[in-house]
Amino acid sequence: MSNASAPAIGDAAVLADLERVVLWPGHCGHGQAAWPFAAQVLRRARRVAVIADPRVWPLASPALQRAADRAGCRIAAVYDGVRPNPSLDEVRAAAAAIRADRCDALVAIGGGSAIDTAKVAYATVFGGQADPADLLAPGNAWMAGAPQADDPLFLAVPTTAGTGSESSTAALVKDERGRKLMFRSARSRPGAVVLAPELTLGLPRAATAAGGFDALLHAMGALVNDCDAPVGAALAAESLVRALHAYPRVLATPDDADARAAMLMASYLAGVAIGMKRVDAVHGLCTPLEGRVDMAHAEVLAAIFDPIADHTARKAAASYARAARRCGLAGPDEDDAQAAGRLLDAIRRMRALGGLPDRLPPLALTRDDALALADQALLSPSTRLNPRALDRDDIAGLYLDIAARSQAAPSTVILPAP
Ligand SMILES: [Fe+2]
């Protein structure tokens, strides 16, 4: 019996209802299956375009070429001009490369910048848009749609562990004025992922620390927030447990491929979780600030974590406490405040291990500045899903607190637990 009122797969309102739609990601090959899996999925392709970070492309190209040879397809175009914090112009150049060579599949290799550029280029070309900016038009049907079986292959090979961009639905790209634009679509999420730890072995310590800390806060934010999406919560908890173990290992023994593989998996799982559940106010308040300070995403997250998490814990300790117990950080007999403190302290220990800042460099904000930032932060679903509800005045107050802390003398460094 047909039901004329039933929403179709791909209906924007349905996909936006995170709590009631389980948006599974595509398939993922890891460990010894990583490159054989790449060869298998590439059998769908004839002419492959690659969008890559220029630093890792020389390292990754032999393995990808072998996989393409086994699959019987050809690498027809390579765009390796992606830089950190990519712009719309880089997306346009990448999209032009895909179009010029009439490619029917896309491979993204690199960190969040390369994968985000590829996501938006994929949507532009295969979504039939003239320009990437057109994807942001309200009600863009392609962006709101669900993945279709005959969508062109999109394979991502993350090399930073990480932003989780390979498994999340979001991409951040700057416009001509330097503002960060959020492109969100389940359809431009890579349909296949290869986790190849050997490509992350040479990652510098600072990038390892920053990427890993971002993944930790994705996992924690998705686990504690108010979105009641049980599959996303389970994946966030698994990711957080793995990341808390893997992060110290990749920092202590960066040449250990097993540690790198563990961090890649934690980051991947966190990306899936945030695609299902979003994050919390630490991320929600971070994005507006990133346009004001010259710091990497993870550094801003680290610097604003304390005031936001402490403010949240004062009224919503139970959310943090549940997460702490679920991850084995707190015992069942500890009260909520104590258990919440264990989770926050674990994150602070990771921050100290990674050498990340606990405050911003001196930042001057007026109350009007703070209110303007609050208006931007409220646009993020992650802000609205914070375990403690935050209104405009609360958020402006947090920004002013963050600015006040940035002017104060450095605090005592919290030493990692032995
Ligand atoms: Fe992030």
Low-confidence spans: pLDDT under 50, at least 5 residues?
Answer: 1-8
Strand order within the widest beta sheet:
1-8-5-4-2-3
Question: What is the fourth-level CATH superfamily of the largest domain?
Answer: Dehydroquinate synthase-like - alpha domain
Structural class: alpha/beta
Shape: globular
Strand content: 5-15%
Give the tally of β-strands. 8
Topology-level CATH name of the largest domain? Dehydroquinate synthase-like, alpha domain
State the helical fraction: 40-55%
Tally of DSSP helical segments: 15
CATH architecture of the largest domain: Up-down Bundle
Distance between the termini: 63 Å
Rg, rounded, reads 21 Å
Q: What compounds sit in this structure?
A: fe (ii) ion
Series of H and E elements: HEHEHEHEHHEEEEHHHHHHHHH
| Number of separate domains | 2
Summed over residues and divided by their number, the pLDDT gives a mean of 92
- What is the CATH domain class of the largest domain? Mainly Alpha
Protein name: Alcohol dehydrogenase
Keywords: Oxidoreductase
Pfam family, one: Fe-ADH
Family: Belongs to the iron-containing alcohol dehydrogenase family.
